[in-house]
Amino acid sequence: NHLLIATRNEGKAKEFVELFKSRGYEIKTLLDYPEMADIEETGKTFEENARLKAEGIAKELNCLVLADDSGLKVDALGGQPGVYSARYAGERKSDAANNAKLLHELTDIPMDERTAQFHCTLVLAEPGKESLVVSGELSGMIGRIPRGNNGFGYDPLFIIPETDKTLAEMTADEKNKISHRAKALHELDKKIDAWLGE
Ligand code: ITT
Ligand code: NA
């Protein structure tokens, strides 16, 4: 039972390895294929980009592939950075640079208007088959200073109101119980057996 996850993001890759531990798949990611060319994310939606990654790699390697396209939607910014979350501060900029840009854009926004959602769309693809698409979201608030060292991306700014902790202040297990990625995988669980049997 092999599954290739079409990501080069180390934070995502770590989470998928943990999340798939109980699911009985042997996981590889594109970090195991450093020579493979990157797929350009030219889509305007999470689904389009996840399809580009999953279907492109599935065709190239002729195997079962799961891709994750995810990002942060901030209400006060009309849903930005959205699909541009990875490159908000520019191509190949650090997570810290993206977080700094987000804080700057939100300078004048009061705490109770800093609501946001993390979104994750997963696409499971196999050559010659209609892909399976699922999504998950997590609601929170964008803080005024980064807090915590766990996780990746915007986690140090993303406060879960019920706990008053950022995702970066939670353990990997705590985040994996509530995350947008975990929710999307839960939807995938419900549908994967029927899809594999098609
Ligand atoms: P791959 O395409 O190789 O998977 P990527 O980082 O380019 O890597 P995306 O295009 O899906 O992936 O961008 C997702 C960005 O959204 C990611 O770089 C983070 O900045 C942010 N993000 C997504 N999920 C997150 C999470 O759980 N915690 C923090 N930030 C997250
Ligand atoms: Na993207």
Question: Can you characterise this structure?
Answer:
This protein is an alpha/beta fold and 198 residues long. It has one domain (2-197): Maf protein, CATH 3.90.950. Helices cover 31% and strands 23% of the residues. It has 5 helices and 7 strands. It has helices at residues 10-19, 46-61, 95-105, 172-178, 180-197, and strands at residues 2-5, 26-29, 65-74, 115-125, 132-142, 158-160, 165-166. Strands 2-1-3-4-5-6-7 form a 7-stranded mixed beta sheet. Strand 6 (158-160) and strand 7 form a beta hairpin. The longest helix has 18 residues, at 180-197. The mean pLDDT is 97. The structure holds inosine 5'-triphosphate and sodium ion (NA). Inosine 5'-triphosphate binds at residues 7-9, 12, 41, 68-72, 85-86, 98, 118, 151-155, 179, 181.
Blueprint (SSEs and pairs):
Blueprint: E1 2-5, H1 10-19, E2 26-29, H2 46-61, E3 65-74, H3 95-105, E4 115-125, E5 132-142, E6 158-160, E7 165-166, H4 172-178, H5 180-197
Parallel strand pairs: 1-2, 1-3
Antiparallel strand pairs: 3-4, 4-5, 5-6, 6-7
Bound molecules: inosine 5'-triphosphate (ITT) and sodium ion (NA).
Sodium ion binds next to loops.
